[in-house]
Amino acid sequence: MAVCVAVIAKENYPLYIRSIPTENELKFHYMVHTSLDVVDEKISAMGKALVDQRELYLGLLYPTEDYKMFRKLHNSYTDVMCNPFYNPGDRIHSRAFDSMVTSMMIQVC
Amino acid sequence: MSRPAHRRPEYHKINKDLFVLTYGALVAQLCKDYEKDEDVNKYLDKMGYGIGTRLVEDFLARSCVRRCHSYSEIIDIIAQVAFKMYLGITPSVTCNNSSRTEFSLILDKNPLVEFVEELPAGRSSLCYCNLLCGIIRGALEMVHLAADVTFLQDTLKGDRVTEIGITFLKKLDEKKYRRKK
């Protein structure tokens, strides 16, 4: 279902980025960058609204039913954050996070 | 004036995640403060000892256990009552020697390491849960039992289970008697 998964820090650099097939990686990196602009737009449009789980999702940039995928990703991300040896801002090297992303991407083929 | 014979009031449950994250922050900070794994392990044990000497009073007040007559009874109480009360798990018990002074507590699940996938690089000798060893050692000492408590197996080091070894040494009381002679 996914061809590229990226986790971006608030300073706009990637904490984790993976895509399949691996040939078009650069194209995906650019896409992630442009999508950051759309994210910024959406956030400024929301104004001072309280951010809850649903709104974190930003309704996705495309209208599809991938909320479950986002939730899985977000849960794995919070598990990574809870690791006391992980410093926020580090690249994500967690094996559990990797296998969760693999399981999401395998469904494409 | 009669004192009511009820136990201490029920403890308020706190969020497990908060407790686990607090413990993790403690270990992570010790790792930043001390370069050597042995030092971190030593300070975790020391802190645990301080907790254990105090926790045992709370435990005895809440649990109303009867006086024990053997080391195996004591270990059973630690596994089935104390661990259950404070960590919500019940490790299984094995006896490791025929004179019944060496025991092991086997933990299939260890709530303290829930968010820790593996030990960080360069920290392969770290005993992440060494606080537990100190707690058990301190608690036993307050009831006049000297024991060595160490980790024999650790899931963070690749073992299948976590095993805490408890070896009872000479009773502290006995030593006192000998000196008085």
TrEMBL record, chain A:
- Transport as a keyword of this entry, yes or no, is yes
Q: Which GO terms describe its biological process?
A: endoplasmic reticulum to Golgi vesicle-mediated transport
Q: Name one Pfam family in it.
A: Sedlin_N
Enumerate the InterPro entries for this protein: Longin-like_dom_sf (IPR011012), Sedlin (IPR006722), TRAPPC2L (IPR044760)
Q: Does the keyword Transport apply?
A: yes
Principal location listed in the UniProt entry: cytoplasm
Coiled-coil zones: none
Keyword field: ER-Golgi transport, Transport
Lineage top rank: taxon: Eukaryota
Q: Where is this protein localized, as stated in its record?
A: Cytoplasm, Perinuclear region
Q: What are the record's GO terms for cellular component?
A: perinuclear region of cytoplasm
Give the family from UniProt: Belongs to the TRAPP small subunits family. Sedlin subfamily.
Query: What is the designated name of this protein?
Result: Trafficking protein particle complex subunit 2-like protein
UniProt lists the gene as TRAPPC2L
TrEMBL record, chain B:
Q: Name one GO biological process term.
A: endoplasmic reticulum to Golgi vesicle-mediated transport
Cell compartment(s), UniProt: Endoplasmic reticulum; Golgi apparatus, cis-Golgi network
Q: Name one GO cellular component term.
A: endoplasmic reticulum
Which Pfam families does the record match to this protein?
TRAPP
The answer, when asked if Transport is one of the entry's keywords, is yes
- Domain of life (superkingdom): Eukaryota
Return the Gene3D superfamilies for the record: Trafficking protein particle complex subunit 3 (3.30.1380.20)
The record's keywords, sorted A to Z, are: Endoplasmic reticulum, ER-Golgi transport, Golgi apparatus, Lipoprotein, Palmitate, Transport
Record's keyword annotation contains Transport: yes
Cross-referenced PANTHER family: TRAFFICKING PROTEIN PARTICLE COMPLEX SUBUNIT 3 (PTHR13048)
Q: What does this protein do?
A: May play a role in vesicular transport from endoplasmic reticulum to Golgi.
The entry's family comment says: Belongs to the TRAPP small subunits family. BET3 subfamily.
Q: How does it assemble?
A: Homodimer. Component of the multisubunit TRAPP (transport protein particle) complex, which includes at least TRAPPC2, TRAPPC2L, TRAPPC3, TRAPPC3L, TRAPPC4, TRAPPC5, TRAPPC8, TRAPPC9, TRAPPC10, TRAPPC11 and TRAPPC12.
Q: What is this protein called?
A: Trafficking protein particle complex subunit
Q: What are the top taxonomic ranks of the organism?
A: Eukaryota, Metazoa, Chordata, Craniata, Vertebrata
